[in-house]
User: What shape does this take?
Amino acid sequence: MPILKNDLLKIDIKSTGAELCAINSVKNNTAFLWHADPNIWGGHAPNLFPVIGSMKNDSYIYDGKMYPMTKHGFVRNNDSFIIKDTSEAHISFLLSSNEELLKMYPFKFEFEISYALKENILNVDHTIKNMDTKTMYFSLGGHPAFNCPLNPNEKYTDYCLEFEKAENSESYLVNMTNGLIINKTKPAFNNPKTINLREDLFDEDALIFKDLKSKKVTLKHKNKGPVLSMRFDDFPYLGIWAKPNAPYVCIEPWIGIADSETANQRIEDKEGIIALNAGLIFNASYNIEIEKKHLV
Assistant: This one.
């Protein structure tokens, strides 16, 4: 398993899906990333491409033809990644289109994801290359799950998510049967900058935001202060999720969103979709910063 390491952090990444699977303190071994208990939820931090969330009827239409597409796309469990380059502080994985993928996604592409560790910050960078002669359509996102509570003597309700700016966004609701976005919202913020975590917060599935002002969110103990932050300048949507009553919280930066119940299934009309012309390259990054006080 590939590893990045410095004096503060040790980062583990699985070749399958190029998935981040551990963020640990070198000095005290505190584990910040969820350990993917399959009895609760078996993911650590799946990478999402070329779609986010569920597609209407698990499919989409391109150029008059219907194609199947699984929830969150085909990257997250893909075994075809190769390691492009690596060092103690940086690693890059590459997935290229192949005959099997072309059956569900008719675009030739390269999907590269790089992890770079500098002091207490892990940067996650995505590079999408359109290797085709036609415009390709895609969404892109992350799905990292963070342990919460962090310490055994704490409770889930001791924690909150704090946003960098005052917000008035509401969360878009999800059809619990098919995972599609419905045209209803609900309040999510306990005050303009804070969402308090509680065991039933995700009983109606993820909190989904389309119009946040903030580009940084912090997982914070209400009394002891910040644990970690995510900065997601390149990502216009944000999902927050966990299995109900589970001891973690996912902070998910997205470019794109699940289909709505009224979607026409044409991929070029999909909300939040990126249209990348032939031969061009698209980049997007987010980072995870661990508070240094938790690393000593």
